[in-house]
Every structure is written in structure tokens, then in C-alpha cells.
Design brief:
The chain has 281 residues and is α/β, with parallel strands linked by helices. The protein has 2 domains: 152 residues, Rossmann fold, CATH 3.40.50; 96 residues, no CATH class. It is 47% helix and 22% strand. It has a 7-stranded mixed sheet, with helices on both faces. Bound molecules: S-adenosylmethionine.
Length: 281
């Protein structure tokens, strides 16, 4: 749907148009701190050709397209078809050129030198082969193109993991502590590894900056019932140590998290992350 008139937004919202309401309601609480940091580092220019790798549900790409105005050409890439469907529906109402392409970062379905700006907001840390994906980002970037990525760092949820490890140790499950550490390391490369991988792909790294935000929760129960944690993190915690072990230690882990929250005035789920800024020579 295209807007009949640029003045009709309020009418659409008052009439309960689901797409208009969706645009107003769209608040990617998790992705926004990463995305706002990334967008602030963009070298703004007219006529940019932009690729968002691992664009998911369309943030920050749709917002970036709006900030760049109608001369930009923005493309989102992700293998998650259902997310792309939702992203496309959000794009419908906008004046800006934003398209979404199903595909993987390891085989980007665009020709070489096609983009002036390649971004990935917490996307490249989720691909199966980071090295291949970065070479592909380099291939599709035009000479002089800016490459910007954010990724959360190994210290993510540090307080939570220290209690998780203590509960495993108390249950004599020390062998699973290493499994948990391996799981954390696999999901969150440290900044020097990102620097090396991005440089090896051919980019010149201009800056790496460190940022952090935190979700402040009441206690362990709030954590385990929070939809974002249930959907995105709990399954991987269970997988890292096995369901039986997780069920065994869960009551003790909850007790530890609750005691911590009582002492500290809440449970901090810290999310330190990296913004890496680079350029194709
Ligand atoms: C944490 S989400 C980030 C989504 C979005 N960039 C944001 O900021 O909200 C990670 C995204 O990476 C996508 N992804 C997973 N494997 C991928 C791959 N091989 N190539 C490209 N994207 C991939 C997922 O489907 C998911 O949408």
C-alpha cells in the first residue's frame, strides 16, 4: 500500500490501519541500542546504495532508509523468509526504496561493487561462516564503500553466566562449565578476532568502539519468563549443557539470581557490544 497523500498518516492511524499502527508501534527494544550506534557512524550522502546483511525484521534498514530520504536504494538480506515478509509489509507504506532479498551472507546474491554502504546490525555474528560472509561483504562493496557492523561481545550477560557456572559447580557438573564457555565463545567473538577477520577480508578498519547497555530485571523468575529471553536465549542455554542438567540446576540457579537481585536491587543483563567501522580501499 502506498500513501494516498503524505498528509493522511494520522487518518490511517485513527482508522486503525494495521500497517500504520505497526509503524508507530515498531520499537525493536533489543536491536535499537546497536542500531542507533551504528547509524550514528554512517557517512551520510545522497544516492547511497545500501545493503543490510542479516536484516531480520527490517531494523535498522527501514529506519536508515527514512533517514537517508528518497534518493537512497536500500536492500535487506536474510535467510529468514517469515521475517522478510513482515519487513516487506512495513516497507509498503513508506516512500523510500527498500527491498528485501532472501539469501545468506556467505553467498550474497548481488554483483561485485554494487553497494556504497554495507551494514550488519548484530547480523554477522549469527552466520554459519563469518569468514566467508565478510569476503562476500567486501566483494559487493564498491571501492570507497563504508562497512559498519555491530556485534555483542563475549562478556554479554556476564553476571548471569557467573551464577550459571556457580550452579553447575555446586551440582558437580564442572565438565558442563566448559561446554557453556564454548557456547559463549562461539556466539560472541572478541573484538580482536573481528578486527582480524574484517582486515583479512580486505577492508581497512578505521575504528573499533565499545558500547554497552543493560536490561534491568526484577529477578530470575522475570528473566526466565521474559518473552525475549525465552525465545532467543533460553533454548541455547539449555542446549549448551543439556536439558537434564539444566533442569537439575535450574532451582539453584534461580535462587542464586534472586539472591543477587535482592542484594543488588535487581538483575542486570549486561550487553557490551562492538561497533566496527571500516572501508573498502
Ligand atoms: C540477531 S538477528 C539481527 C536482526 C537485525 N539485524 C536486527 O538488528 O534486529 C540476526 C539475523 O541474522 C540472520 N542470519 C542468520 N544466518 C544468516 C546468514 N547465514 N546470512 C545472513 N543472515 C543470517 C537471522 O535470520 C537474523 O535475522
Amino acid at each position: 500500500m502506498k500513501l494516498a497523500s503524505e498528509y493522511s498518516w494520522l487518518t490511517l492511524i485513527q482508522a486503525g490501519d494495521p500497517i500504520a499502527i505497526g509503524i508507530i508501534d515498531e520499537t525493536p527494544v533489543w536491536s535499537a541500542p546497536f542500531g542507533e550506534t551504528l547509524m550514528a557512524a554512517i557517512h551520510l550522502a545522497p544516492n547511497l546504495r545500501v545493503l543490510d546483511v542479516g536484516c531480520g525484521l527490517g531494523y535498522p534498514l527501514l529506519e536508515l532508509a527514512a533517514r537517508l530520504g528518497p534518493t537512497a536504494r536500500c536492500v535487506g538480506l536474510d535467510p529468514w523468509n517469515a521475517a522478510l515478509g513482515r519487513a516487506r509489509s512495513k516497507a509498503q507504506m513508506r516512500e523510500h526504496v527498500v527491498t528485501f532479498q532472501e539469501g545468506i551472507a556467505e553467498a550474497i546474491p548481488f554483483e561485485a561493487n554494487a553497494f556504497d554502504l554495507v551494514i550488519s546490525n548484530n547480523g554477522l555474528n549469527n552466520v554459519a561462516d563469518i569468514k566467508k560472509a565478510l569476503f562476500e561483504c567486501f566483494r559487493v562493496a564498491a571501492p570507497g564503500a563504508q562497512f559498519l557492523m555491530t556485534a555483542n561481545l563475549p562478556e554479554t550477560f556476564g553476571t548471569f553466566y557467573s551464577h550459571f557456572e556457580a550452579a553447575l559447580e555446586a551440582a558437580n557438573q564442572n565438565s558442563h562449565i566448559q561446554a557453556l564457555r564454548d557456547h559463549r565463545a562461539a556466539k560472541r567473538p572478541p573484538s580482536d578476532r573481528w578486527y582480524r577477520l574484517v582486515s583479512e577480508a580486505g577492508f581497512g578498519v578505521a575504528a573499533q568502539t565499545y558500547h554497552t547497555f543493560s536490561w534491568h530485571l526484577l529477578d530470575g523468575e522475570a528473566l526466565f519468563t521474559h518473552p525475549a529471553f525465552r525465545l532467543s536465549f533460553l533454548p541455547s542455554w539449555v542446549e549448551a549443557v543439556g536439558e537434564d542438567i539444566f533442569e537439575t540446576i535450574r532451582p539453584d540457579l534461580l535462587r542464586r539470581l534472586d539472591a543477587h537481585a535482592r542484594d543488588a536491587g535487581g538483575l542486570e543483563m549486561e550487553i557490551p557490544f562492538l561497533l566496527l567501522e571500516a572501508e573498502k580501499p
